[in-house]
Amino acid sequence: MTKVIPFSHLARQQHLNFLEHKRREYREREDYLMRLRKLLFQIEGQMRQAEILQLDLLRQVADHFHIPLEFPSLGDRLGMQQFFTENPFLFTLTEYLADRLTGAECYRKILALAGEQKKE
Question: How would you write 14-68 as a 3-class SS string?
Fold first, then answer.
């Protein structure tokens, strides 16, 4: 009439189902991480491109006022931070671009810096 299933078969099937469930869970999470990594890579590329365009803008302003500007390596984040805080021209320009200086104040400071560089 009824067939008795041995406990070992039931336990084996339970373990196999558990493993399959964990494999699917792992794959879903791994696929999600892969999509996030791709997105992060794209965003990092766009950020790098925008940063380079910002540096180019600063270089154009420096060229316009005949102020020599040598940026550190793009990969040197700490060097870039120090360069921006220690370079008086960049400090003045970033203050202006952040709306902490008026155009007239910025221009006056740039002229003073250009005058100092001509004396050197």
Answer: HHHHHHHHHHHHHHHHHHHHHHHHHHHHHHHHHHHHHHHHHHHHHHHHHHHCCCC
What is the domain extent for residue 32? 7-51
Q: What is the pLDDT along the chain (120 residues), one digit of tens a residue?
A: 578 888 888 999 999 999 999 999 999 999 999 999 999 999 999 999 999 999 999 999 999 999 888 888 877 888 888 888 899 999 999 999 999 999 999 999 999 988 876 665
112 vs 17, 87, 116, CA distance in Å? 76, 14, 6
| Contact between residue 83 and residue 62 where contact means Cβ atoms under 8 Å apart | no
pTM of the model: 0.69
Query: Is 56 domain-assigned?
Result: no
77 and 109 co-located in one domain: yes
Does some domain include residue 44?
yes
